[in-house]
């Protein structure tokens, strides 16, 4: 996948999503950067000025299926009537911190599920007709969503929602296999963003570059797998 591609990145206005967008543009891809408030996405709008015609900033709220459908209606205007997406990066995510057993909030659980699991699943389902045969879908999961690696009670609403995203990944991989579409869940490492915090180990640029290397090198046998930004398998 080295030629210019059409890529959609969700949660593209900051953090790892913004880094994906920067790096994809730098290598010549055409990017649809989806975010909740395009008018306030200063960095993206600046990038759009630097890459005229190759970056489109469109609205999307992962929790609102109505906006998924609106995005699907807009995409042919950007891709051309016969154009298709070569890569969908389901990056938007949320983490509610400071949760302790006995005080886990129902609204946080619901919000995390709708953002981190239902959002990517439903968006991929809605955009499936617009994915090219042989396209790739990369779902930003987390080691915190791994049942096998969980050793303590931490970030429960996030962990539950990312475990659900992992199941969504496997189901999407199966649903799209006959079109040669590869769907994987990935762990970006612990990344220095608003979510990861200043003490995190990995720079957002390194995480994005590592994940793009992985999604470039996967084949149909890898569909439905969970790997990290350096290509190591992650236990479910
Ligand atoms: P940030 O908190 O820095 O950025 C999150 C992004 O998601 C923002 O663009 C935010 O937009 C967007 N977003 C949140 N909710 C919604 C929504 N309902 N609809 C659309 N966009 C939304 O996080 P990171 O960049 O660190 O994380 C990116 C992904 O990587 C996430 O899925 C996260 O779970 C995952 N990840 C991150 C790790 C880390 O250490 N940082 C570790 C493991 C996984 P807005 O500005 O509008 O809020």
Give a quick summary of the entry.
By secondary structure, this protein is an alpha/beta fold. The chain contains six helices and seven strands, in the order βαβαβαβαβαβαβ. NADPH dihydro-nicotinamide-adenine-dinucleotide phosphate (NDP) binds next to helix 1.
Class in CATH? Alpha Beta
Number of strands: 7
Strand content: 15-25%
Q: How many domains would you count in the coordinates?
A: 1
What Rg is obtained from the alpha carbons, in whole angstroms?
17 Å
User: What is the spatial order of strands in the main beta sheet?
Assistant: 3-2-1-4-5-6-7
Description:
The structure is a single chain. It contains six helices and seven strands. The protein is an alpha/beta fold and about 240 residues long. It has one domain (about 5-230): NAD(P)-binding Rossmann-like Domain (Rossmann fold). It has a seven-stranded parallel β-sheet, with helices on both faces. Helix 3 runs parallel beside helix 4 and helix 4 (about 105-125) runs parallel beside helix 5 (about 155-175). The radius of gyration is 17 Å and the shape is globular. The two termini are about 25 Å apart. Bound molecules: NADPH dihydro-nicotinamide-adenine-dinucleotide phosphate. NADPH dihydro-nicotinamide-adenine-dinucleotide phosphate (NDP) binds near residues 93 and 196.
